[in-house]
Amino acid sequence: MTPPSRNPTNADIVIAGLGMTPVGEHWNLSLRELALQAITAALEDAAGLRPNILYVANMLSPMLSGQTQLGALIADFSGMRGVEAVTVEAAGASGGAAMRQAELAIASGSADLALVVGVEKMTDRVSSDVESALSTASDVDYEAVQGATRTAQAALLMRRYLHEHEAPTDALAGFGLIAHANAVANPLAMFRKAISPEAYAKAPMLSEPVTIFDAAPNADGAAAVLLARRGVFPENPDRPTVGILGSAVATAAPALHDHDDPLTLTAAARAAETAFQRSGLSTEDVDFFELHDFFSVYAAMALEACGFASRGTGWKLAQDGKGSRDSELPILTFGGSKARGDAGGATGVYQIAEAALQLQGRAGEAQVAGARIGMTQCVGGSGGTCATHLLGVLEVD
Residue 368: which CATH number? Predict the structure, then answer.
């Protein structure tokens, strides 16, 4: 691996603007309207720059909204009729995968400005419909058809994790506690209220041992990020320029039973390793980590897969004050999926927008002091796809 550098001097691709909608139940807004709100905010944040290409990250629109061809739909509704636009789908990793496609478009010379918008609508349909739609992220022929929902799979993983690693029954409680504590400072979060260990212990069970505080709520939301080739972007001396230092998408078997070790997120490990290699950074350089905590067991497994903890010890990084904004490795700094709300295919875009705010010093009460390098990772299904990004503050040319 290339020796790490705490002060990256250059990156070809930078974040020019970002925008996010509140995460929640938006029954009065359509997919296109949610997307437009995020896009409008991002383009205003970018001082009016206009994209050459649009990528829409979405997971469930064909099933829950009856709409395909979101690229053309949202381009048209956003006043960009005629622009090159496509939808990117990789289950819960859709947002990170769409960001990767936008980066490749700029790196190849196909575009100077690429806009990514992640948008999801989940709350318009009853929970059984949503659960069935979410199950399509598994291996449908062998898992979903047998009734193996993603909550049931998370319960199997959590039970196995606690047993195999001889962890206490409340070992994973820290992830929910950190997420809810951090979300208090996030005005866009679905749940802006801290929870206590006692509340976690009394939480209703979803699928033993997974409780409501181990599972992220399904939500509606949209987030947009405008990427630019650095020379095209008029840098603001009053706002630190944030660049994409390294990124990668990796895949593994969609079916949980096909994993050599079900407690290892192989795709997450591969994507993280590749992103670190491409950036010349290591885990020691990361100032905060926006991981995908759609279930608390996946948060622990992500920390282990990405090299922040050894196998079976990831849960300890959310114990005794670790993981908070003033700790050695802050996680879920805006509340993560657990408290911000999990907006499906938009999750990865929310993560990158939140990381950029941290690095620009615009995170308000959620600010991680002195943050220079941030990491994001989103997961599709039970680990079939993982997208990892490393972002950093760039020195002025």
Answer: 3.40.47.10
Give the residue numbers spanning the domain of 119: 13-126+215-393
Tell me which residue of 48, 396, 25 sits closest to 220, measured CA to CA. Answer: 25
Q: Is residue 290 part of a domain?
A: yes
**For 218, phi and psi rounded to 5 degrees?**
-75, 135
Q: Which residues are 393's β-sheet partners?
A: 242
C-beta separation of 223 from 19 below 8 A: yes
Q: Which residue's entry shows tokens 């993983």?
A: 157
| Model pLDDT, residue 3 | 34
Report which residue type is found at 274.
Answer: T
Measured CA angle at 160 (ends 155, 164), to 5 deg? 155
pTM metric for this prediction: 0.96
Quote the number of domains for the chain: 1
CB atoms within 10 A of CB 226: 25
Angle at 357 between CA 95 and CA 321, to 5 degrees: 95
pLDDT over threshold 70, residue 80: yes
- The crossing angle, in degrees rounded to 10, of helices 173-183 and 296-305 is 100
For residue 158, pLDDT over 50 is answered with yes
